[in-house]
């Protein structure tokens, strides 16, 4: 891999809630990874693993407990609220949410939902230009441009998710965080939305952070995948490496639980339980270590050779 | 057909709404055999939940059952009085709901909640009921059940709560257990445990299960037979192998090929274009025709009847009519059929009639 531009660098990010108090929750506990320009980075894990918190920290909905997040080389925690830089940052990074019912204001018309970002950033000069741009965006996401005056409740779940995507695209962002964008949709609609996201990515050279628990869809859309568990990254590598040659026992266990639409495979399936006690043995030295080309596993120094051997097979 | 514990015949259910009459269930017939698991799959709004709620007598007040019969051991449940239905519910028919967070009473200890159906349906002392509740909680895998009887739902995790819901459902040894998306709200690892539990319980209790889901992966793991619903109708029904490896209906093709398998690479996912029809005004012909790339003229004019593929496999598509042109199913479906044929040849497949589960 030649030197690719890193759009996001997460360095030793810790995100604790109620730090120092008895009810402290270590949602994200020292993770580091980079996201390259133009790729789709998949983040998977069970509920409570900290994957959504990571996404929200990157878009600065939270201030990190410690650690740094760099967006195009700039430390995002240094950006002042209500400053010009903040406006610039918000324009370049957008989010698509999980629930297409809750993430659209029911009392706003579609055109106002989509154009809100245009107004805030002053991207259009007059109403005519505004309408023009909104109609363009609706076309891009495959909705009828004549529906601009409708309200969200007049659309189906899949269509609403398209509106959410149009809203994110309106300000021409470079980086989009998609937090479980298809989990609330029906199977036949999921494929439509995923195809749309891929199309737009190709055309606009977008970078995605794709957060999900549906592992087969993540495998399909992502270039690289990180597996998260208890606030830490267990394994990170190319989609192919993580899925077809998983090394960490947690990844193996997670993959062994994914149901596949194939009765013959399901009859033969054996599930691998994950015993988290292996983490406790030498916990303080555990970190992500590179086992193969760009394939990292959360382990201690002495386990590296064992994993390398496994990979040779 | 005496081994059918449940027979649903020509069921039609409408909902009266402000916008008009929604024809939610349009002529649905199926049966459930003793000890089998029937999966009903379909998108939201396809009528799978309404069908099962009608079996339980739990339809909303604006629902009108136009006609049809639901025969439970030969007796029509639709003709039963409210009191008689009370006797069935939680006794020989029981149901597991999707969301374990909301289907338990937050102010009642779990021991009491599990014992409740026993107290209602049987003349049994409180002590005996609680003792039995504890046994069932142990059966569904709640660790240290004895000491947790007096705990409240919020003290349990999502997966454990769903186990408790299952315990409530099976405490009276129901003959039919209806599970409405029981694993949708759970993580994959927990989902796998709940599915294993349901399989295990079925073996022990010989209950018949109707399993509603939209997740075809889950269906492949648990079902003996599968019914696919679309726009208020069953459009294809067959054994799990028939539906997954030799599907005949274009909608089933679309569903199966829109799921990425682990070797789907780079290429575009095949998706089903468009959205399901509005059941306020269902189309005259095949409801799937506008989204169906294989649609013919007749699909727009008349609803297809069921065509027999095998003794267990039926599909409602005009493509199976003797006069229909031969069409090539989408590539992923052809691939499935080939892989299956290969497995058959090498003798790697246990025929489902031998009752192979797992």
UniProtKB/TrEMBL annotation, chain A:
MF terms per GO, please?
Answer: ATP binding
Q: Give the chief site where it resides.
A: membrane
Q: Which Pfam families match?
A: ABC_tran (PF00005), oligo_HPY (PF08352)
SUPFAM superfamilies, alphabetized: P-loop containing nucleoside triphosphate hydrolases
Superkingdom in the source lineage: Bacteria
How does the protein's chain sit in the membrane according to the entry? Peripheral membrane protein
Residue ranges annotated for the ABC transporter domain, each copy included: 8-255
Q: Which UniProt keywords apply?
A: ATP-binding, Nucleotide-binding, Peptide transport, Protein transport, Transport
> Has UniProt tagged this entry with the keyword ATP-binding?
yes
InterPro entries assigned: AAA+_ATPase, ABC_transp_ATP-bind, ABC_transporter-like_ATP-bd, ABC_transporter-like_CS, Oligopep_ABC_C, P-loop_NTPase
**Where does the record place it?**
Cell membrane
Q: Which family does it belong to?
A: Belongs to the ABC transporter superfamily.
The identity of this protein, by name, is ATP-binding cassette domain-containing protein
UniProtKB/TrEMBL annotation, chain B:
The alphabetized UniProt keywords are: ATP-binding, Cell membrane, Membrane, Nucleotide-binding, Transport
List the CDD domains: ABC_NikE_OppD_transporters (cd03257)
> Does the record carry Membrane as a key word?
yes
**Which Pfam families does this one have?**
ABC_tran (PF00005), oligo_HPY (PF08352)
Every ABC transporter domain range: 8-256
Highest taxon in the source lineage: Bacteria
GO terms, molecular function = ATP binding
| Compartments where found | Cell membrane
NCBIfam families in UniProt: oligo_HPY
Protein name as annotated = ABC transporter ATP-binding protein
Q: Which organism is it from?
A: Bombilactobacillus thymidiniphilus
